Amino acid sequence: TINKETHSFQTEVKQLLNLMIHSLYSNKEIFLRELISNAADAADKLRFEALSHDDYFGNDSDLKIRITTDKEAGTLTIADNGIGMTRDDVMNNLGTIARSGTSEFLKAMTKEQQADSNLIGQFGVGFYSAFIVADEVEVRSRHAGAKPEDAVSWVSRGEGEFSIESIEKSDRGTEIILHLKDDEKEFLEPWRLRSIIGKYSDHISLPVEMEKVDMAAPEGEDKEEDEVVVPEFEAVNKATALWTRAKSEINEEEYKEFYKHISHDYGEPLTWAHNKVEGKQEYTSLLYLPKKAPFDLWNRDKPRGVKLYVQRVFIMDDAEQFLPVYLRMVRGVLDSNDLPLNVSREILQDSAATTSLRNACVKRVLSMLEKLAKSQKEDYQEFWNEFGSVLKEGLAEDHSNREKVAGLMRFASTNQDSDEQSVSLKDYIERMKPEQDKIYYIVADNYATAKSSPHLEIYRKKGVEVLLMTDRVDEWAMGHLTEFDGKKLQAVTHGELDLGGLESEEDKKAVEKATEEKSDLIEKIKTQLADKVSEVKISARLDESPACVVASDGGMSIQMARMMKAAGQ
Ligand code: ADP
Ligand code: MG
C-alpha cells in the first residue's frame, strides 16, 4: 500500500530490545503479563475518556481482553476493546522514540555488568517483552474515536525496524499478534496460557477470556458441512479490581502480583497496607513500600504518587497530590468516592477532599512504617538502608508529622562499631546518662571523619553516645529537628560546649582558671588568626587534641560552609 512506511528503531531501543530479550529469557512468560497489563490500562483509559466522549463506547461497552491461538499459523493473539491507538500514538508509543528512562536504564544495566530484571520493569518497556517469544509482532489498532478505515498496523521482527500502515479494522481496540518462535510453541497450549493468566491476572478488573473447552462435546461426532462453529468464550481470571475485594479474600501472591502490575517493578514489595474507609470520607487505599529504590530515586521531579481512581474509574497515573515528596517511594492505588469523576490535576490541586485524602494517606504510610519498624526490624532496616535519606527530607518538609518522622529515623552512633544506620532516637534516649538532657550528634562528610572528630573526645571520655550523621541531607534535615520527645538535639560542633547536667563544677573551674592564666596566649592566637576566626577560647571540649574549630551557635556548620564554597558562594 501507498501509506506503508518503514522506520528504524533508535539505537537505544535496539540495544534495549537486545538486552531485554536475553536477560528476561529465563522468565519469558512475563510477556503475557505485560501485554495483558497494557490491555487493562487501555480499558481503564477508555472508561476515563468516555466520560467526556459520549460516542467512544458505541455499542460495544463490555470491556474485555481475549486471548486466542492459531496452531496452524503459530500465532498467539491478545485482543482488547480498550482505547486503541491512532497512527501517531503507535509511532510515539511503539516506535522511534526511546522513552525518557531508556538511556539511564541502559547505563545502569551496563554498569551492573549484568542484566537485572528488576530494573527492566521500571522503564515502560513492557510491550517489547513480546519479542522474547515472538520473532514477529503485529499490532492492529483502532482508536475509540476513529473510523474503521482509519485503523493502523505496526509490524516488526524486533531487529532494527518496523513498518506502519493504515488498515481497516471493524472493531475498536488493539490486537497484538505474536508469531511465536519455533521453540516457544508451548504458548499455544490453552492449559499453559490459563495457568499464566491465573497467576498474573486475577486482580485485573476486566475479564481475560479464552475459548471455552467444551468437555461435554461427544467425541468423533461429525459436524455438518455448513455448520459455522461460533466459539464461546469464558473468563479465566477473577476479573475484579483487587482493591475492591475483601482483605480476607486476597492472598499474599495476589497482593504481590498487583504491586508488579501497578509499579512496573519486577521485584517484590516489602509490605503494604490495604484500607477501606467509610463514613464522612469514603475511599479505599492500597499502598505499597518497594524493596528496592528505582534508579531515579534522587530525581525529586520524576513522576511519582499513586494511581487515582474515582468510584472505580481510572482517572490518572502518578497522582502526586496525595503524597509528599519525601514519600515518593510509595506506590499504590487510591479509589475515592468523594472526588468528582471529571477531576483534573488542576482541580486536585486545591480541593479540600484532596487535602484530607492526603493527610489520610500520609498517616497510613507512616503507621505502616512504624509497624514495620516495631515488628519486622530486619525488613525495616532494609527499607531504611534503601530509602532512609529520602525519608529524612520529611523532617524539613512535613511539620505536622515531624515527631513521627523523627521516630522513624535511624543513625550510626558511637555506641556501635559500624557505619550501619540502625540507632533510633528512642534507643538513644533509653541509653542517656541520668544527668544528660540533650541528644548529641555530629554531621560530617563521611563515617571515618565523623568517628574520629576531635569534637567527640569529651563525650567519649564521659561515656556519652553521639549520633554520627554522614548523609548529604543530614545538615539540612537536622536543621529542622530541634527536639524529640522533649529532648533538645545538639550538634557537638556548634556553639559553647554545653554538656548540661554532665558538666562537673571541677571542669568549669579548670576552664575558668586556664582562661585567666593563658590570656596572653589566647590574645596572641587571636591576632594571628584575626581574619579567620571570630573567637578563641579555652574549652573542656577536647581530651587528646590540642585545638579544634567550632561553628558558632546558629551559624553555618563547616560542612555547609564547604558546600557553599564548592557552589561558588
Ligand atoms: P507502559 O505500559 O509502561 O507505558 P509499554 O511498553 O508496556 O509501557 O507500552 C507502551 C505504550 O504503548 C503504552 O503506554 C500505551 O500507550 C501503548 N500501548 C501498548 N499496548 C496497548 C494497548 N493494548 N492498547 C492501547 N495502547 C497500548
Ligand atoms: Mg505496559
UniProtKB/TrEMBL annotation:
Positions in coiled-coil regions: 504-531
Positions of the UniProt region annotated as A: 1-345
Histidine kinase/HSP90-like ATPase domain ranges (all copies): 27-184
Main location: cytoplasm
Protein's cellular compartments: Cytoplasm
Pfam families associated with the record: HATPase_c_3, HSP90
Gene Ontology CC annotations of this record: cytoplasm
Top-rank taxon: Bacteria
InterPro entries for the chain: HATPase_C_sf, HATPase_dom, Heat_shock_protein_90_CS, HSP90_C, Hsp90_fam, Hsp90_N, Ribosomal_Su5_D2-typ_SF
Cited CDD domains: HATPase_Hsp90-like
Binding site for ATP: 34, 38, 80, 85, 93, 100-101, 122-127, 174, 345
SUPFAM superfamilies: ATPase domain of HSP90 chaperone/DNA topoisomerase II/histidine kinase (SSF55874), HSP90 C-terminal domain (SSF110942), Ribosomal protein S5 domain 2-like (SSF54211)
Keyword entries, A-Z: ATP-binding, Chaperone, Coiled coil, Cytoplasm, Nucleotide-binding, Stress response
GO MF annotation: an example: unfolded protein binding
Subunit structure of this chain's protein: Homodimer.
HAMAP family in the record: HSP90 (MF_00505)
Function summary: Molecular chaperone. Has ATPase activity.
The protein's name: Chaperone protein HtpG
Gene: htpG
